[in-house]
Q: What sequence folds into this?
C-alpha cells in the first residue's frame, strides 16, 4: 500500500512541477488574445477572380505567341470570362493547327492539363480552364496572399501575429499589441495588386464622355479604369477615366524588388525591378507599343500614366503624386510580395491596450469572487474534507495554465469565462464523491471502505458528465471562431485537469491521510 502511495505521489508531484515550469512566468508563457492585450482583428476576402483573370491572360498571351512563332498571323485573342478565352481570326487550316499546337504544348489534352476546348467554329476556338485548375488557382492565390501579408506584418515588426485562412477564401489576421493601428491598417489594406496596361483612350472627366468615343459601348477588349486628379499641392480633387486594354501581360507576380527613389524635380517615386520572365514580357509589351501611353495600375486604380519612348526590360519607376511616406510604404508593400489578387476587408476590430487591461482586471476579480464562493461552500458543507476539494481546485488551476502554455494556446476574455466555469465544474466531481462517501458512512461502513466505495460508485457519473462536456467543447473549437475557440480550449483543458485532480489527486490525499494517521472518523 505504501509503495503504491509513493509512486502515485511522485507522479502527481512530477505533473505539478512540469505544469508550474511551463506556466512560469505567466506574463511570458501565456499568450493573451486581442481582447486582453489589445490589437487589431481583420477578416479579409481574397478576390480570387483577379488571380483567375491574370492566369487566363498569361496563358492566352503565351498561346498566341507560340502560334505566331509557328507562322499563324492575324490572331485576335479575347478573354470572355474569368477562366475562359477565345482566339478568333482563324482559317479552317489554322484552326486545326492551333488546336494541335495547344495539345502539343500541354494547354489541352489528356493528363490533367489546365485548359479544355469549350467550342470551335466561325473562325474561332474557345478555351476554358477545368474545375480542378480553377480551384488550384484560387487556393494558390489565398496561400500566396497569406504569405504576402505575413511578410508585410513581419517587416513592420508586429510580435506574435496570428494569420490563418478559411475554406471560403478568407484570411483572418490578429495582431496583438499594435501601437499604431492606422499605419498597420493602411499597410494591410493597401493590397498593391500591380498591373501594367496599355491605354487606348483618355483621360476624360467622366465615364460617359469616354463611352461616347466608342458609340456608347466599349469593345470587348477594353475596360474603363479610374485615376485621381490632383492639384498643384497634391490634393485629390476628383477622378479621371481611361479606356485600357484588358490584357494583363505583366503583373505584380513578375516583380523582383522595389525601393524608394527620386524622379524628376526630386519628386518621390518607386523604382522597381522585374524577374527574368517578367523582363521578357515587359520588354515585349513596351517594344510593341512604342509611342502609346501605358498605365501603372494599383488595386484597380491608375496610379500614373507615361508614354512609352523605347523598349523597357528589367526595371522602371512608378510615378504619381506620392509623399515620401507613401513611397516608403508602397515600396515595402511591393517588396514584401505583390498580392496575386485584390483583397476586401469584411470585418475590422481594434481593441485598445487600456480596454484589454481593464478586461484582465475584471476577469481576475470575477475569478477570485467565484473561487472564494466555491471554497466557502465546500468548507461549510463538507467540513475538513472540503480542504481536499479546495486543494484539488488550486492544483486544477495550475494544471490549466500549464496546459495553455504547453499547447501555446491564446487566453481570451471568453477563455477567462471558461476558467471560471471550470472552477465551478471542478468541484462537481468532489461533490459526487463526497455524497457517495456520506451514504456509505450512514450505512455503517468503515472510513476506508466508505472512501473506496464512494470513489468507485461516483467514477462512472464523473466520466459521463465530463466526457459529454468535452465533446461539446470539441465541437465549439472545430466550428467556432476566435473568441468561441478560446472558450472551448480553456474549458477542454480545464475539464481534463479537473478529472485528474478530483479523481486521482483527491483519492491520493484521502489514502495518504488514512495511512499516516489511521483516521477512525471522517469529517465530512
A:
Amino acid at each position: 500500500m505504501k509503495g503504491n502511495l509513493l509512486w502515485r505521489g511522485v507522479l502527481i508531484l512530477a505533473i505539478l512541477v512540469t505544469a508550474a515550469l511551463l506556466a512560469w512566468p505567466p506574463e511570458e508563457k501565456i499568450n493573451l488574445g486581442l481582447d486582453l492585450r489589445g490589437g487589431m482583428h481583420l477578416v479579409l476576402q481574397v478576390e480570387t477572380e483577379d488571380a483567375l483573370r491574370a492566369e487566363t491572360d498569361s496563358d492566352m498571351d503565351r498561346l498566341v505567341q507560340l502560334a505566331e512563332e509557328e507562322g499563324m498571323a492575324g490572331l485576335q485573342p479575347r478573354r470572355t470570362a474569368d477562366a475562359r478565352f477565345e482566339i478568333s481570326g482563324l482559317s479552317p487550316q489554322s484552326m486545326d493547327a492551333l488546336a494541335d499546337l495547344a495539345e502539343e504544348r500541354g494547354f489541352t489534352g489528356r493528363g490533367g492539363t489546365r485548359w479544355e476546348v469549350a467550342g470551335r467554329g466561325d473562325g474561332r476556338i474557345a478555351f476554358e480552364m477545368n474545375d480542378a485548375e480553377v480551384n488550384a488557382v484560387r487556393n494558390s492565390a489565398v496561400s500566396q496572399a497569406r504569405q504576402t501579408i505575413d511578410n508585410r506584418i513581419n517587416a513592420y515588426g508586429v510580435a506574435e501575429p496570428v494569420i490563418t485562412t478559411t475554406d471560403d477564401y478568407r484570411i483572418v489576421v490578429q495582431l496583438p499589441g499594435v501601437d499604431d493601428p492606422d499605419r498597420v491598417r493602411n499597410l494591410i489594406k493597401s493590397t498593391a495588386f500591380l498591373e501594367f496596361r496599355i491605354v487606348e483612350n483618355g483621360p476624360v472627366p467622366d465615364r460617359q464622355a469616354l463611352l461616347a468615343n466608342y458609340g456608347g459601348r466599349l469593345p470587348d477588349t477594353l475596360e474603363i479604369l479610374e485615376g485621381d486628379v490632383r492639384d498643384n499641392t497634391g490634393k485629390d480633387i476628383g477622378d479621371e477615366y481611361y479606356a485600357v486594354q484588358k490584357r494583363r501581360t505583366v503583373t505584380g507576380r513578375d516583380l523582383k524588388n522595389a525601393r524608394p527613389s527620386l524622379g524628376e524635380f526630386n519628386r518621390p517615386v518607386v523604382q522597381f525591378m522585374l524577374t527574368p520572365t517578367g523582363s521578357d514580357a515587359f520588354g515585349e509589351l513596351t517594344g510593341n507599343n512604342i509611342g502609346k501611353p501605358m498605365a501603372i495600375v494599383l488595386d484597380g486604380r491608375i496610379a500614373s500614366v507615361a508614354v512609352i519612348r523605347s523598349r523597357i526590360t528589367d526595371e522602371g519607376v512608378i510615378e504619381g503624386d506620392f509623399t515620401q511616406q507613401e513611397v516608403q510604404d508602397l515600396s515595402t508593400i511591393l517588396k514584401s510580395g505583390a498580392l496575386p489578387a485584390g483583397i476586401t476587408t469584411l470585418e475590422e476590430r481594434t481593441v485598445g491596450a487600456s480596454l484589454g487591461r481593464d478586461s484582465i482586471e475584471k476577469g481576475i476579480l470575477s475569478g477570485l469572487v467565484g473561487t472564494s464562493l466555491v471554497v466557502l461552500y465546500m468548507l461549510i458543507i463538507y467540513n475538513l474534507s472540503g480542504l481536499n476539494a479546495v486543494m484539488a481546485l488550486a492544483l486544477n488551476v495550475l494544471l490549466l495554465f500549464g496546459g495553455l502554455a504547453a499547447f501555446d494556446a491564446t487566453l481570451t476574455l471568453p477563455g477567462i469565462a471558461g476558467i471560471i466555469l471550470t472552477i465551478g465544474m471542478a468541484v462537481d466531481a468532489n461533490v459526487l464523491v463526497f455524497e457517495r462517501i456520506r451514504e456509505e458512512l450512514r450505512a455503517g461502513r468503515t472510513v476506508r471502505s466508505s472512501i473506496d466505495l464512494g470513489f468507485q460508485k461516483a467514477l462512472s457519473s464523473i466520466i459521463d458528465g465530463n466526457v459529454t462536456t468535452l465533446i461539446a467543447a470539441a465541437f465549439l473549437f472545430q466550428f467556432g471562431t476566435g473568441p468561441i475557440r478560446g472558450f472551448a480550449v480553456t474549458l477542454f483543458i480545464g475539464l481534463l485537469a479537473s478529472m485528474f485532480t478530483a479523481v486521482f489527486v483527491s483519492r491520493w490525499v484521502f489514502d495518504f491521510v488514512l495511512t499516516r494517521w489511521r483516521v477512525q472518523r471522517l469529517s465530512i
Summary: The two ends are 24 Å apart (CA to CA). The mean pLDDT is 81. The longest strand covers residues 194-204. Residues 482-517 form the longest helix (36 residues).
